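The pair is quoted verbatim as follows:
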Amino acid sequence: MRRVSSRTWLGTLVVASLALATAVPVVGQDAEESTAPASLKIMSPDELVITDAAPVIGNGKKQFGWANGLNENTIIIGMQGAMKDFAAQYGYEVLLDTGTNSDIQPMVQAMQTWITAGVPSITVIPFQPSAFAPLAEQAIGDGLAWISYGQNMEPRHAQIAFPPCDAAVLVADAAVEWINANAPDAKVLITSSPKIPEVACKWEGAQKAVEEQTEATVVAVQEATNQQQGLQVTEAILQAHPDLRVVIATNDDAAVGASQAFKAAGIDPAEVFIIGYDGLKEALEQIGSGGYIKASAALNLKRLAENVARTNIWIAQNGIPEEPFQVNEPPVLVTPGDPLVEELLAFYGE
């Protein structure tokens, strides 16, 4: 069987996906070399120097909105706390929507309220960019700042990025390495998040890498983006394939759910390899303690939250930028024994 580097095929995948105007960089480069779309320049958080000054745009109030539609998510909850703490240092208030499970209606309602009130800047996770574009145009027409989070959308003044396809390379490579070293004929479950096709490199990348670089078998690719779905999907696949031992999850929430299924089945953690994304507390704890989850393409969530706050405040204080820019937070693979595990866990205790 021909062995192909996951970096090679992912590079091709992402170049093609740029036609869809996604915010992912060209994978095949190292994370620090990742590039934004041609219309964006990269700015370091250190360049965004903020002060105690009041906004020069919008209603002049020290506030900004963050519409995420994921208020049930543990990571989002933690980020909101870190964001509020950082913003409070400069007297700013963080306004939030009430959406859960990627429901855009509460997001839209919140953003409409913020635009009407003249909130200086708004950041949105653009699950459906076309649905949010009219709001962005209205906000920009009213002289307010519009910032996208996690993926690109048009129009916008800035975006906060954590290149998902860079993380996909880390996950694919780690899974391939473990399979070839520990279970060459493994059965593999991959979970997906089809509501966010812009990050399809996560599950498509994993499947391609496993099929081309190992003798393992991908027995299923199924949607699972939270713990309950991860548990249910893994339980079902374990019933059909009792020898399932590898799960490549689209995020750490699904990974935790998968680990619960293996635990309920009485399977030895040493036999199982589960990997996810983001650096969820429960996942990091398992990585540190020798649980079912063996790795995560994690983010420094405190720094990511601060990047959101910093970008909003900087634009509010300095005015609408002449050209759009992007602020990146690169992922890092976290594995057992890595001292970074404790550093990232500290985020949840603050």
User: Anything to note?
Assistant: The mean pLDDT is 88.
